[in-house]
Amino acid sequence: MTAAPTRADVARMVDHTLLKPEAGPADVAALCDEARALGVLAVCVSPSLLPVDGTGLVVATVCGFPSGKHTSAVKAAEAAESVARGAQEVDVVIDVAAALAGDFDAVRADVAAVRAAVPAPGVLKVIVESAALTDEALVGACLAAEAAGADFVKTSTGFSAAGGASTHAVALMHATVGGRLGIKASGGIRTAAQARAMIEAGATRLGLSGTRAVLDGWDA
């Protein structure tokens, strides 16, 4: 039996996230200080707030966020600029409508354009907005992301009216690409119990804004 993850194990799975439109440089500096104090893996900030003092942390950002309705060229340019400004990981939003329409070639091509702008060792995570997709579209989007060279698939932006992460979506994503791609659960995870359920469903990374509350509740 695999041992249950400790608080430190969970912290090393966390992208400590600040994507509020009103966030400024002072907020990001505070985020990074808190991230180091909590022992998390990464911080995730808006691209306009790069570069940041990411000493001891992985620096992540978003692309085509939050709608995904940017052209592939715009997404690729945004990702390239973010990498140039110090981002080590990029979380890009797919065109959800293309996935719902079953046009997975378009999803693959869109992600591939961003992949070319985020060369290894840069990490590319693909936000599929799982709550807005049917199961069939979710599977297809994950496979398209894999075919385009993604490193992770990610549930949600946290900004969609359809909702955030669910254990059903995480389990389906894990069944589809788990063991080959990482699975990032993000969107509405606010308690240790919710985080534990996501990990048990197959999540290998967590996107959290309320990281301290989740970690403080882990052993409670």
UniProtKB/TrEMBL annotation:
Annotated SUPFAM superfamilies: Aldolase
Keyword Cytoplasm attached: yes
Major localization class: cytoplasm
EC number(s) stated in the UniProt entry for this protein: 4.1.2.4
UniProt keyword annotation of Protein biosynthesis present: no
Stored Gene3D superfamilies: Aldolase class I
Protein name: Deoxyribose-phosphate aldolase
Lineage: Bacteria, Bacillati, Actinomycetota, Actinomycetes, Kineosporiales
